[in-house]
Amino acid sequence: MGTGVFIISAPSGSGKTTLVERLLRDISGLHFSVSYTTRPPRGQEQHGRDYFFVARKEFEEMIARQEFLEWAEVFGNYYGTARRFLEEAERRSEDLLLDIDVQGAAQVKQKLPDAVSIFILPPSRKELEGRLRRRSEDSEEVIQKRLRDASREIHGYARYDYVLINDLLERSTARLQAIVRAERWRQRGELDSEPNREDKRLVREQAESCRKERVQPQVEPILASFGG
Ligand code: ADP
Ligand code: 5GP
């Protein structure tokens, strides 16, 4: 059985961390890839748990040694996924979950066409702003910058397989889980087979409701709320 790769991207404040934590709690055999970055740690972040924090020189040496599956410069810092995480997941017969930006997602899709990509969107700019404020993690200046960055990033949704509009948390949690379960069955050729054929059909329908093509009409007003 091959290792499945799931890519999740989202503008900051959309609820990605919350949804990923719930997914890892509810689904077994899914390994979270800890990225390398040259940005300094924030708040409670820990080396090896949230990121591997390294100097630019070290990162550039890793690029030269071709140690990255993908890497990109995001907001002035390098971020990258080490190839070894994929190899480890393959050895353990686990799937791999990548939390990376739009540029990284495009590189992974090119190298691993079976990778499944999911873009998380907030329901509107106003709701995103409210969440950033309620999270109380950032200064007003940083919140304004995140909103500007979000306006740029959200257009990237068009290159993803699935789009998850994170409105009601419980529903979004269930939908994300459904996408992973349905894709696992599909990749193993078990989607229409027994056991639990009817359950599988329902999960698949829930996943299919998040296909980019299906969500498109709901995305238009969200883009409009960010000013086009
Ligand atoms: P991200 O990782 O995308 O920056 P977080 O997971 O930190 O986002 O979520 C941002 C804030 O929004 C947090 O305070 C979180 O509790 C809250 N949040 C996440 N999902 C929802 C939701 N569906 N409805 C309301 N608030 C949410
Ligand atoms: P932050 O600094 O807020 O943790 O992350 C900033 C952005 O970098 C987010 O969009 C996040 O998804 C992205 N990112 C984190 N790790 C990686 C990585 O390994 N590769 C790429 N391409 N982007 C990453």
What distinguishing features does this structure have?
single chain; 228 residues; alpha/beta; Rossmann fold; five-stranded parallel β-sheet; four-stranded mixed β-sheet; 9 strands; 48% helix; 18% strand; globular; binds adenosine-5'-diphosphate; binds guanosine-5'-monophosphate
In short:
The protein is of the alpha/beta class and 228 residues long.
Question: Can you walk through the features of this model?
Answer:
There is one protein chain. By secondary structure, this protein is an alpha/beta fold. Helix content is 48%, strand content 18%. It has helices spanning 16-26, 56-64, 83-91, 102-111, 125-135, 140-153, 169-188, 197-208, 212-225; strands spanning 5-9, 30-32, 35-37, 51-53, 68-74, 77-82, 95-99, 116-121, 162-165. Helix 7 (169-188) packs across helix 8. The model has no long low-confidence stretch (mean pLDDT 95). The structure holds adenosine-5'-diphosphate and guanosine-5'-monophosphate. Adenosine-5'-diphosphate is lined by residues 10, 12-18, 131, 134-135, 166, 169, 172. Adenosine-5'-diphosphate (ADP) is lined by residues 10, 12-18, 131, 134-135, 166, 169, 172.
